[in-house]
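hey all, quick one before standup. I had two proteins in the batch that finished overnight and I want to keep them in one place so we stop losing track of which output belongs to which input. First protein below, input sequence then structure tokens straight from the run.
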Amino acid sequence: MKTIFKNICLLFFVSITFFANAQNNSNYEIFKDIPYYPDSIQNKDAYIKEQCVLDIYKPIGKTNAPVIVWFHGGGLTGGKKSIPKELLDYGYLIVSAEYRLSPKVKAPAYIEDAAASTAWVFQNIAKYEGNVKQIFLSGHSAGGYLDLMIGLENKWLAKHGISTDSIAGLLPLSPQVITHYTIRDENGISKYQPLIDAYAPIFHIKKDTPPIVLITGDREMELLGRYEENAYFFRMMKIIDNKKVKLSELEGLNHGEMMRPGIFLLMKEIAFILTN
């Protein structure tokens, strides 16, 4: 289903009402800088040891909590493993994973890191009272791109003995679905030149996927045609009869502004997935 929000004021009103009944942000225990690669790999590469770590935000007193693995944005060249504070308003267990960045590395290093950190979550999050059967992937911009890459092409997680079928849902905010512009730049291709190859989520269109919720900003205000990319991805999924994909456009909001109201939609969709 394609959803366009015509009235952002209404969205914020509903968001505020929802937050009023939400969890207190202080009700979290935080575990910082946990390595997700084994020592045999970390000890051989100083950049992996420095960069390939994750933080866990565990809701105090809650067991069997749904899990959101969050990848930050930054064009695959910047950013850090921080999370929007709104993610802590719902009592879910949040994992914020860092990954290596270009130009220190090139594709597929950051995709491999996203897969390795997600696999670590599947293998270890029960120790932190997380529900292994309710692991969702999310993130903004480049983070959303990583969600889709490892959630659509099974080989990245299969390397760690995990199937994409185990993912409860993919909920990227304003993801690139053609080949990421940083990967194009690594290969001397302009960010204005569209490319679809194996590093494009849209290359991996298929009927059977985890539930997918695509959320973008206003098509006239988004970054480099981001809405149109997602709309084409959505259309092709529908053509092959994938019944698990949705697309929402937040009118009046640009690429950066859409993230926080987008989180409200993200959480609403997760609640829907968990109850259906």
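OK second protein, same deal, sequence then tokens:
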Amino acid sequence: MKILVTGANGYIGRHVVKALLDKGAEVIACDIVCNDVDARAECRSLNLFELPEGNVWEQLGSPDVCLHMAWRNGFVHNAPTQMGDVSAHYNFMTAMIDGGLKQLAVMGTMHEVGYWEGAIDENTPCNPISMYGIAKDALRRAMIQYTDQKGCILQWLRAYYILGDDRKNNSIFCKLLNAADDGKKTFPFTTGKNKYDFITVDELAHLISAVVMQNEINGIINVCKGEPISLAERVEQFIRDNGLDIKLEYGAFPDRPYDSPCEYGDATKINKILKNI
């Protein structure tokens, strides 16, 4: 298979490119720069917000699948760019479909759903509460309609709480490493009771690559483990795994009222895909 990956140089994209290559796919890695992308991939430098004239799908190698992972300010959930960029993403993906693309996979997020208690599946109602979630949800709805009209397969990949490669993200795990580097012995924390669906970026890359290299199971697919774990338990494990000389200061920050006490993905569809590999 020939798979185009946009955002290939990003936090998740670099790992997905490697996972696809390891599975035998031909990968076209697309980003503004590709300096951290696996050298086995064919790199294309492109600003998706400034599309060239003509058939974009053909110009990007006529891929069998486009895995659209590009997104600006993904860690800044209320950045003013979130809603402003939606049209550019829509224009790129519709241009690819109009050019001849038959299978589109797009990186989604749990933040499309907003506040929810329990398992999230493809029928869970979405009421996003951040500009990032609102933008992703709007794009998802638009692409469901467009792909239905054009007969293009759509795989909407909904990710949850990602860790790993922690120097390159903006999570609590990155902040813990920075605090330890600064010689701090305590780290201000909440109660840590909230439960989330944690996954390492390499595990996530494996799941994403498995999804896009098949087309029997489509629609909204949770790329997750489906196993809720308390934030405190996962952070304490991270401290142990990394040998950090730092202790959590529980209760220093109040739990945020808009954070669900327990939110995780229903892994039924992704487990079916993995069984068929």
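Flagging for whoever picks this up: The radius of gyration is 19 Å. The chain has two domains: 2-162+197-227+264-275, 164-195+228-249.
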